[in-house]
């Protein structure tokens, strides 16, 4: 008779939940990754979150020589004065008009260019075109505005050429009625190529077998574009659109300041330049801070509302 001396097998508990690690254990496990993230976290804390404390100026009659603590508290008086200021509403109107033009004309441009670049067969040609269209993003607005001035300004190349052939277009860069379209055209020329990067990455992530299955079913390139490519990048489009809505009241400070004298404040004044000229130049710190605070709160509310709307339509949005 053989007697088994083996120890009884440990009972396995099916469906047992794994033991949750403590915060100390997780910090000990991930300390290297946390150390790598520390410089980025410090950057945002020092330059983005700590300055938020300065928004208390919006509720005070702030004077630099008195300091924040020494300046008298005025409550909502700065907000009331701001809403009664006609120049503020002019800036709001110009900002919304430029934003609408950028959403209508600029936002689809990177998507269309990414689809066009994805259709190129040769990788060498594709890389060459990508390099060329990325370059304008790295030019400063000073250079971009100067280039537009040299091309379509009063003495620009195209203006001079057309004038020599008895076609007068005037100085397009100094026309207040065309300023908003010109500003949008400058943004399209400068940033469309750079904006294609994330869309090209999203297109690359689409499973190739979906294109193959669509081709086997007889779908031409238009059908594959409509039923495979666009649905594949739709979450990215929705996410970027939500983020753009949150930034709806920011249309470019440098670009507007550089062209303000040429077209006048009536046509080019936006919220950012209004804050600069009334706060930094004229010293009205309280009302300018109130304008900036309102701008931030409206942007946050738009992001929250757009994200909720995306969830209702079954999209992921930017957070759950």
From TrEMBL:
Belongs to the binding-protein-dependent transport system permease family. It comes from Streptosporangium pseudovulgare. InterPro entries: MetI-like (IPR000515), MetI-like_sf (IPR035906), UgpAE/MalFG_permease (IPR050809). It comes from the Bacteria. This is Polysaccharide ABC transporter ATP-binding protein. Pfam families: BPD_transp_1. It is found in: Cell membrane. PROSITE patterns: ABC_TM1. It is a multi-pass membrane protein. The chain crosses the membrane at residues 31-50, 103-121, 133-152, 192-213, 225-246, 285-306. Residues 92-306 form the ABC transmembrane type-1 domain. GO terms for molecular function: ATP binding.
